[in-house]
Amino acid sequence: MSFSIGSLTFDGSAVLAPLASVTSAPFRQVCLEHGCSYAVTEMVSSEALVRDVRGAIVRMDRAPSERVLAVQLFGADPATMARSAAIAVERAGAAIVDVNMGCPVRKILGVGAGVALMREPELAQSIVRAMVQACGDSAAVTVKMRAGWDDGSMNAPEIARRVVDAGARAITVHARTRDQVHSGSSRWDVVRQVKQTVGVTVVGNGGVKSAADAAAMMRDTGCDAVMIGRGALGNPWVFESIRSGQPRVPSIEERFAVIRRHLALYIEQFGERVAAREMRKHLCWYLRGLPGSAVVRASLQTMGSSGQMQEVIGSFEAALLRGDTRADPGDFKERAVEQGD
Ligand SMILES: Cc1cc2nc3c(=O)[nH]c(=O)nc-3n(C[C@H](O)[C@H](O)[C@H](O)COP(=O)(O)O)c2cc1C
Question: Can you name the residues that pair with 172 across neighbouring β-strands?
Answer without folding.
Answer: 144, 203
